[in-house]
Amino acid sequence: MRIVLGIGHESGVAFAELVALADDCLKRAACAQRDLDAVASIESRRAVGLVVRLAQHFGVAATFYPAARLELETPRLLHPSEDLFRRIGCHGVAEAAALAAAGPEAVLVLAKQAARGVTCAIAARDPNRG
Asked: What are the coiled-coil residue ranges (predicted)?
């Protein structure tokens, strides 16, 4: 199974927090790091550099999407947030970014998890193949 890790984070969060939650999410989803194709997030987090560092940590590409593109994923989100929509223009970051990067046939294999200012979700590119 090929997977994409979606990441959201608050300003000022430590890189170690992203790594810790990402590792925990991979374990929870029973996914191997070798199955990871990309790390995805919202475009506004590109300049911060933490998502790029996380992608480098895992040896995969970092992909970013504008809020308007992430908003298109709202019907597939398990945990849409009206508060987030009011603040940044999309109903989710971690789940939406994972789904956007994984493609139109992708499914969430791990819904949004949150810890210490970081959110993480995992989508599978080809959920019907092991």
From this structure: none
Total domains present in the chain: 1
- The tens digit of pLDDT for each residue in 59-78 reads 999 999 999 999 999 999 99
Average pLDDT, the chain: 94
The CATH number covering residue 75 comes to 3.30.420.180
Q: Which domain holds residue 97?
A: 3-124
Measured in whole angstroms, the distance separating CA 23 from the mean position of its chain's CA atoms is: 13
Question: Does some domain include residue 130?
Answer: no
Residue 11 lies in a domain: yes
Indicate the helix (H) or strand (E) that contains 82. helix 82-88
Look up the pTM and report it: 0.94
Q: Distance (Å, rounded) from C-alpha 14 to C-alpha 36?
A: 22
Tokens of 37: 């194709």
> How many residues in total does the chain contain?
130
